[in-house]
Inverse folding.
DNA sequence: CTTTCAGCCTGACGGC
DNA sequence: TGCCGTCAGGCTGAAA
């Protein structure tokens, strides 16, 4: 599934081909995504120049003169860069063609993703916490915002108003590396441990971005390879199997309707 | 205010 | 073999 590293990799791959290009064609075959795609999207985009592209949280933003397009890949979305017209595959929902002939295809079986247009500010981007890899995110930030909060620390670090881009996989992995139980209350964790946790979150995400950059470098031809970080996962998807540190069987629990794996001995 | 939870959607998988 | 239930997951908005 697209986590922050895949979104970042997608951005880096598409940018050179799209920034500065003029949109010549837009086809929406399936507008029923997370939110309905506006029906005049082609009119809004055709003839416009893509001025710049960026990422905020797990959103990709394409800035045009009149406004901007915000794309979220949801659970199963991917963007493929095509050099020529290709037959539409099942679950290909949207295509954007630019004047050079390059085209991007949006593919999303579960349709949890979104394409939203705005003339000014995207409301989805307000109330977002800092980027995890920025200097605005550190142990002090987590400690300060965690005071008085009773929810489990895993849910806390997965909240986008606290910090963005930490999904279920990376939350579990960084908590294991920091030795913190995922069900511990956010308000009952020391500054020292939050400093360690923030550092592990950064390290895990950085590694995954590097891996994405390696495995998905040719994402032009194949997108969404889910195996890129798998070898490095120490807890996610490994419940019942031995802890890599103490060999005790890893526990499975549910927090906030999310499956959560942890080591009952190493995480306290 | 904080926290919980249903809902969106398809494909994979297990049990019968 | 096929059918049916369950699960997976990010994010929102409503309920508690």
């Amino acid at each position: 599934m697209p986590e922050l590293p895949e979104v970042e990799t997608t951005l880096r791959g598409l940018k050179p081909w799209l920034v500065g290009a003029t949109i010549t064609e837009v086809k929406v075959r399936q507008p029923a995504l997370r939110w309905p795609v506006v029906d005049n999207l082609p009119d809004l985009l055709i003839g416009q120049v893509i001025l710049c592209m960026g990422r905020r949280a797990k959103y990709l933003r394409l800035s045009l003169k009149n406004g901007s397009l915000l794309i979220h890949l949801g659970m199963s979305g991917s963007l493929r860069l095509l050099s020529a017209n290709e037959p539409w595959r099942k679950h290909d929902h949207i295509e954007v063609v630019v004047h050079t002939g390059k085209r991007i295809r949006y593919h999303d079986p579960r349709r949890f993703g979104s394409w939203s247009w705005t003339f000014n500010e995207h409301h989805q981007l307000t109330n977002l916490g800092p980027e995890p890899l920025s200097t605005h995110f550190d142990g002090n930030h987590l400690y300060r915002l965690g005071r008085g909060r009773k929810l489990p620390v895993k849910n806390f670090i997965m909240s986008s108003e606290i910090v963005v881009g930490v999904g279920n996989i990376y939350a579990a992995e960084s908590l294991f590396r920091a030795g913190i139980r995922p069900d511990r209350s956010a308000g009952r964790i020391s500054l020292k441990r939050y400093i360690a946790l923030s550092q592990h979150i950064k390290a895990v995400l950085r590694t995954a971005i590097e891996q994405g950059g390696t495995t998905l470098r040719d994402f032009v031809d194949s997108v969404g390879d889910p195996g890129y970080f798998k070898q490095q996962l120490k807890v996610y998807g490994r419940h019942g199997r031995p802890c890599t540190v103490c060999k005790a069987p890893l526990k499975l629990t549910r927090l906030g309707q999310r499956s959560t794996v942890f080591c009952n001995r190493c995480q306290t």
Observations:
- The two ends of chain A are 29 Å apart (CA to CA).
